[in-house]
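Regression test attached.
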Amino acid sequence: MALEKITKVVGTGVPVMGDDIDTDRIIPARFMKCVTFDGLGEFAFFDVRNNEDGTPKDHVLNEDRFAKATILVSGENFGCGSSREHAPQSLYRYGFRGILAESFAEIFFGNSITLGMPCMTLARPDLDEIAATLKADPTTPVQLDVLNRSVTVGEREYVAGIPEAAREGLIEGRWDPIAELLETSEQVDGVADRLIYV
Amino acid sequence: MQDNPKSLFEKVWDAHEVGKLSDGRSQLFIGTHLIHEVTSPQAFGMLRDLDLPVRYPNRTFATVDHIVPTDERNEPYSDALADAMIKELRKNCKDNGVTFFDTNTGKQGIVHIIGPEQGITQPGMTIACGDSHTSTHGAFGAIAFGIGTSQVRDVLATQTLALSRLKVRRINVDGELAPGVYAKDVILHIIRVLGVNGGIGYAYEFGGEVFDNFTMEERMTVCNMSIEGGARCGYVNPDETTFEYLKGRNYAPKNWDEAVSHWKSLRSDPGCEYGDVVNIRAEDILPTVTWGITPGQAIFVDQNIPIPAELPEKDRATAEEALEHMSLVPGAPIAGTPIDVAFLGSCTNGRLSDLQEAARYLKGRKVAKSVKAIVVPGSQVVAQIAEQQGLDKIFTEAGFEWRGAGCSMCLAMNPDKLIGNQLCASSSNRNFKGRQGSITGRTMLMSPLMVIAAAITGEITDARKLFEIGRTAA
């Protein structure tokens, strides 16, 4: 299963600023009544974007000028709460290919990397500056350089973080670990045999 | 003194590590895998796409909890999507030889309640489930954590996961909790102190006199909400309380003495190194209520709702957003806030002892007319024992609706939902915007006793005052 080597993500961005944006907000639970992930894209941030009566809210994600954005910019502890992979799946299917935030909740981060969607961390002042740049000009090119741990927005380059294991997986095309996990069948049985409860 | 003292986390991790992967992560054997209807169907689908069998079908256990209606038991369910999900899980379990605690077994319930209840959850295990509250099982001295659906696929196909080792933060709570202060208050306080993201990168090891004295159910309540503090897993070292709880349960080890002796050896060694140590005094913890939209936005019931300008700058924007959503007045006392709904249940506080404690104080009293109150036992076993003890009658006589087992209004994937901007006094674990099924719905998290107190008076109430707890202590 050869996977694409993801060294860079290039596109435009949309700032959805705020801290502790949880996975219930990314994909409300009522949209998880499904047995596949197909079609989840249209429900990403559904209640953030829409009023109770279904009319669109005055929200950055409803602005036409951000409609083609592929990089999401947010704040601290992004993706906290429920472990639902439906959250990154819905963002990916909505069209996002990378996320920048001050920090990520662990389960969300792992789920996103396994989909091949890089999540990189930046200092808050840098994120605020990026958000301002994008608001001023949504066509500003944004580039996530996974290989060199940096993010370029227009002319400005920022230092960005990503844990080594995730970086390695993305740039080597091994961001989904299933192939490698399947290779060690005998060793797995060996560990199982040594455990008193298995 | 041992040469190389280790924490329980390290011992369990080392015993389950298959090897290192090319990206530097560990391949970790998952001894016990729990699944439910919401996060597993896609994983079984991926397995079919890859033409892979379930590798260790006897190490996966299934139940249905999130979508089950709590007031109708007959299938097909009136919600066709929910009906399709339970049937899909039933089929996946049957096709793959996975044990399924179905609704007709008498053992169905919230996955984090039935694991311990059946004795499936044991010390020294690695336990994974596509549900973030899997941290609950750490109460037994297991390394237990939530995973995504692709990882459910990984466990089904290989019984392993690719994971980075966590650091361990030891959290000591010493001293004695005051009367009317519960495990729920302890974890809400810990989250308030360390933050909702303070636990990222850590496993929380809970200890100290308070945990030594806690029952297993109290330990489960605390470990359950580790994830709300950002810690993917939380645990308590196993002791006699743990062994006593497990003895005689359906899945308890047959080689009991050997198992207990092994479990004792897993406890964190004296002098082991922790990534961090935090000390909290039990006396500093009072009944706690959330006022915002994250579990860290909490205060003691006798405190006033925060004024954003007086908070640290980094917390202000979220506080303002929270106060707007909650329609609360900054600076006003939180006690006296009117509620519309009282929810007693969830994997945090839907166990027998939660229901018993609530019923003890509810007996002979009435729910306020303005309040819709429901109690949802965490499992069919909890419901059955509670009914044998007559707890259901105490609840219904007081004006609570007595429901069937499930996750219910904790996340509102079944028909139990808030309507409009109703405010719910809830024994559950998350107060996120929209969490309880209405976009404008409002949630305040608290202990079961505080839920009961709010249900009776129709407003947020200090249960210690209402029930005169601690005043007549001899």
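Expected vs. actual: identical. The longest helix of chain A spans residues 124-136.
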